[in-house]
Specification:
The chain is an alpha/beta fold. 15% of the residues lie in helices and 28% in strands. Bound molecules: heme C.
Length: 499
């Protein structure tokens, strides 16, 4: 007979079961990590299987051999397109500026000894190039104040196998170039980005090691880039794809970040105060900001204390002035399988607040802040994730169909007419540090325009030999390697620039 007690117990058990049942985790949607469909969207690549040489050599040219004590620059000046310059091991203390096409500048490594470019903490830049079809390889570059290797509007470049240590603001910085390969470089101790791809298209960044820098690898205002097989460790932020507002190219899109190691990026931020990277929280693994169509696949992302992956829009960034012409959200972020371990264990208040809003406590592997359209993730149950409620499951599992975004036939060499000189120099050189809408490394353009209205000569004179003016900015490097006509043209361009 059913007594009252048994009945009560039965009801109790039934109610508990019902409550427990409703609290049960939904069964995760598990996507196979092996096999499955490949990504079929975004940019149409033409390179097929090759990630090999991207420069098109015009001719074989002659080989110049440089010995310690010789000047590399004087040989660059007398060389012809097609020539190779081999620099023998030893120490060279100079700035090399290549303003012609089709030069192969090569350090010779002999029994481990390299050609070393030593800025002695005084010189600004080690190697600058503005030509097309430039190859720079095998150097040891150290102790400069500005850039290790900077490209200024040259197309088809290869920068490989260089060891770059403490070269100031940027380690390797191709700016405004189409079709370029940056591979097998080791870069450390950089106050902004160790590898900075700026306003460029069709680039491949592979097999590099970047560490002890503020940003490891940065894809900024650039399109069609693959970042793969790199080791980004012990930076403030490991791998970043974002839009800097106020630059003439307004978007970052079609970026694949795959098969990289991104670990221990917990170095305190030592970026120039007020600069954009100074806003990156220490402990950032991968950061996507205002970039679209970014795929994150097959990375091992571990021990980044703020979060393994942060996706945000411009409104969350400190030190950013919104550009009305840049779409500020990160749309179509696609997160495929990644191995994520021990991230977000000591995060920032902003992430804690976003997590709490979703009743999430504890570490955070992935956080998405701000609106986003068309984003997706596979196997979301694996991660401690916040802000990805509107992510769908991806309808592909890999990017195997896309070996590279390099151009099979190279890019047309950029030809700079006298009329374009100011614009190209501005885009290729100044916009690395000056933006229209806000502070980058240097003051915003409108501030400069107010100072130098109707005085391009005065501005040209300043950039030829800058003096330190503002205590809260670093000094500006001299632009004396540009000839006077270019200095004046860029001064006029900067003064006439409108948003
Ligand atoms: C590596 C970063 C960097 C680059 C590249 C750069 N600048 Fe600057 N610029 C700065 C900084 C930093 C300051 C502030 C310096 C100070 O106040 O002492 C500055 C200041 C200036 C000023 C203000 C001068 C004054 O009288 O106050 C002008 C003008 C200027 N830059 C023009 C240019 C032009 C033109 C270019 C390109 C040819 C350029 N800059 C490239 C970092 C840079």
């Amino acid at each position: 007979m059913l007594n009252k007690r048994t009945l009560m117990l039965a009801v109790f058990v039934f109610v508990c079961g019902w409550i427990l049942g409703s609290n049960k985790q939904p069964v995760p949607i598990i996507t196979s990590s092996a096999g499955g469909a490949s990504y079929d969207g975004g940019y149409r690549t033409t390179a097929g299987d090759k990630v090999a040489a991207v420069t098109k050599r015009l001719s074989t040219g002659i080989i110049h051999i440089i010995n310690p004590g010789d000047s590399i620059q004087s040989v660059v000046e007398m060389s012809q397109p097609g020539d190779t310059i081999q620099v023998l091991p030893g120490t060279y203390s100079e700035t090399v500026y290549i303003d012609k096409d089709d030069i192969h500048l090569m350090g010779v490594i002999d029994q481990g000894r390299r050609a070393t470019l030593d800025g002695r903490g005084i010189l600004n830049d080690a190697i600058l190039y503005s030509g097309n079809n430039i190859v720079i390889e095998n150097f040891h570059i150290k102790d400069y104040k500005g850039n290790g290797i900077m490209g200024q509007a040259g197309n088809n470049f290869e920068i490989r196998n260089n060891l770059i240590v403490d070269t100031g603001i940027y380690g390797i910085f191709p700016q405004l170039g189409i079709n370029g390969l940056v591979e097998h470089n080791v870069v450390s101790g950089i106050a902004d980005a160790a590898i900075y791809i700026g306003m460029s298209d069709n680039v491949h960044v592979a097999f590099n090691e970047v560490f002890d820098s503020v940003a490891g690898i940065e894809i900024e205002n650039s399109r069609h880039a693959i970042v793969e097989n790199n080791n980004a460790h012990n930076n403030t932020g490991g791998i970043l794809a974002f839009v800097t507002p106020g630059l003439p190219i307004k978007s970052t899109e079609d970026v694949i970040i795959r098969n990289n190691f991104v670990s221990n990026n917990n170095t305190p931020n030592f970026g120039a105060p007020g600069s954009m990277v100074a806003g990156i929280p220490s402990g950032t693994g991968v950061l996507i900001m205002a970039a679209d169509d970014v795929i994150i696949e097959g990375n091992i992302i571990s021990n980044n204390k703020t979060s393994g992956i942060i996706i945000s829009d411009h409104s969350y960034a400190s030190n950013v002035t919104i550009d009305p012409h840049s779409e500020p959200n990160s749309d179509r972020t696609m997160i495929l399988d990644n191995v994520m371990l021990n991230n977000g264990y000591d995060t920032i208040p902003e992430v804690i607040a976003l997590a709490l809003a979703e009743l999430h406590t504890g570490p955070v592997d992935i956080v998405h802040a701000g609106p986003s359209e068309g984003s997706c993730i596979n196997n979301r149950h694996r991660y401690q994730a916040v802000g990805i409620g509107n992510y769908e499951n991806c309808d592909f599992t890999n990017t195997d169909n896309i070996r590279s975004y390099l151009l099979a036939n190279g890019a047309e060499p950029r030809v700079i007419s006298a009329d374009d000189r100011g614009e190209i120099a501005y885009l290729g050189v100044c916009s690395g540090c000056h933006s229209f809408t806000g502070r980058l490394i240097g003051p915003p353009v409108p501030v400069i325009q107010a100072m130098y209205a109707n005085n391009p000569e005065g501005l040209a004179k300043y950039i030829n030999a800058p003096v330190k003016k503002r205590s809260n900015y670093p000094p500006m490097p001299a632009m004396s390697y540009l000839d006077f006509e270019t200095q004046l043209a860029v001064a006029k361009y900067m003064l006439a620039l409108r948003e």
